[in-house]
Design goal:
The chain has three helices and eight strands; from the N terminus they run αβαββββαβββ. It is an alpha+beta fold. InterPro entries: DUF306_Meta_HslJ, HslJ-like_sf, Hsp_HslJ-like.
Length: about 140
Amino acid sequence: MCVLFSGMLLNCNAVSSNTSQNTAQNSQLQREWMLTAFGSYSKSDLIAKDAKINLTEKAENGKIKGTAFMGCNSMFFTSEFKNDGTVKMSELGSTLKACQDMKLEMDFSKAFRSVTKYSVKGHFLTLSDDAGNQMEFIAADWD
């Protein structure tokens, strides 16, 4: 009986530790992120377009519903960030406004679908694909 109780106690502790690790990870990710580096676009181009992603929705079942804006349409997606540094983007869509310059939006949408890895270092988020292409963000709430 004592062995059984000890096993149950250890299992509860492991679940609690994993949950707190996910909570800490989500608190780092669940913010608004301004795009600062992407392909051949200059930082000033990205700032002028107000290029950003928003991951502030509450996480449900390990997934965060997010939005993105690259100067014209509102984009939406579901993200799943794993503890091993991998990320899966799914359920991507957008509004369908026709704007004069949609190149950034189209390039971002194509690249964003291919993202497979992420890293958060301080106030910086980097998303990358399997070919090593990266997009870099800074937390909007960082002064």
